[in-house]
Design goal:
This protein is of the alpha+beta class and 270 residues long. The protein has a single domain, classed as Deoxyribonuclease I, Chain A, CATH 3.60.10. The chain contains 4 helices and 12 strands. The relative contact order is 0.18.
Length: 270
């Protein structure tokens, strides 16, 4: 990024964050959805991106965060550009933030990428793929190191600015990497607070997530909200966290087997 572009981005951050706070509480409804799509493969082991899109369309969301998204990755998803295909099937605007971007298997083919994505009913005004600590699954000798795949986007649903962040945290039972990821995300979100959603790969009351709850609160209220595994959910690892100024109008977990996770949907007001 050039120096001028960096200054402009900083100004956008400042103005959007100020507008978000100033406009809070006017009662505008916003439907947020998060969905780990397993690259379009359902609980039956069948790849079916139409089914994935149908699960999204059934909820009529304003914004969707997606995890485990392929772009030209391999045969499991038919080497499709899934962000573009889902955007076409839902009529939404896409942004893709790869975690991994690998050389193609054949010369001249597109890069093989896997990561998180955003689908938005309103245009995406600004987007960045931010680094957080990761322990790569592609390198057997990997050590925790900063790597991409934390999506930061600026939207203006109903004409009002909104920062949205999509994450996919480390899946290992040992929480050290997730703890570092939480610290990284808090640093990135500090100048531009917004809605944080994703697959956290741990339960909402996990100790490593507590720092997030000092500035964000869970959009889910009460018991339930279980999302994983989709056929017999036992854990609530897919979450939507909201900043001050947002109210919770309701939330639910759609009953779908389009992936190995069920999506979570939160209706917010501000």
């Amino acid at each position: 990024m050039s120096r001028i572009a960096g200054v402009l981005a900083a100004l956008v951050l400042l103005l959007a964050g100020t507008a978000l706070t100033a406009n809070a509480g006017t009662g505008s409804a916003l439907r947020i959805m998060n969905f780990n799509i397993r690259a379009g493969t359902g609980m039956d082991g069948t790849f079916d991106l139409d089914r994935t899109a149908a699960a999204i369309n059934a909820e009529h969301p304003d914004v969707v965060g997606l995890e485990e998204v392929d772009r030209h990755w391999d045969n499991r998803s038919r080497f499709l550009d899934e962000p573009a295909e889902l955007a076409r099937r839902t009529g939404m605007h896409p942004y893709f933030a790869p975690i991994y971007s690998l050389d193609p298997k054949e010369p001249g083919a597109p890069r093989r990428e896997f990561g998180v994505a955003v689908l938005s009913r309103s245009p995406i005004l600004h987007a960045r793929n931010r680094d957080i600590t990761r322990l790569s699954t592609q390198d057997p000798n990997a050590k925790p190191t900063p790597a991409p795949g934390f999506a930061q986007v600026l939207l203006a649903p109903r004409g009002r600015p909104l920062w949205l962040y999509v994450t996919h945290l480390d899946f290992r039972p040992e929480p050290t990497v997730r703890r570092a990821q939480v610290a990284d995300m808090r640093r990135i979100m500090h100048p531009a607070p917004g809605v944080l959603l994703g697959d956290f790969n741990t339960d909402p009351d996990a100790a490593e997530l507590r720092p997030l709850h000092t500035t964000l609160r869970d959009a889910w209220r009460g018991p339930g909200g279980l999302t994983y595994p989709a056929d017999e959910p036992k854990r609530r690892i897919d979450q939507v966290l909201i900043p001050p100024g947002f109210g919770r109008a309701g939330s639910h977990v759609p009953d779908t087997l389009a992936a190995d996770h069920r999506p979570v949907v939160a209706d917010l007001v501000r």
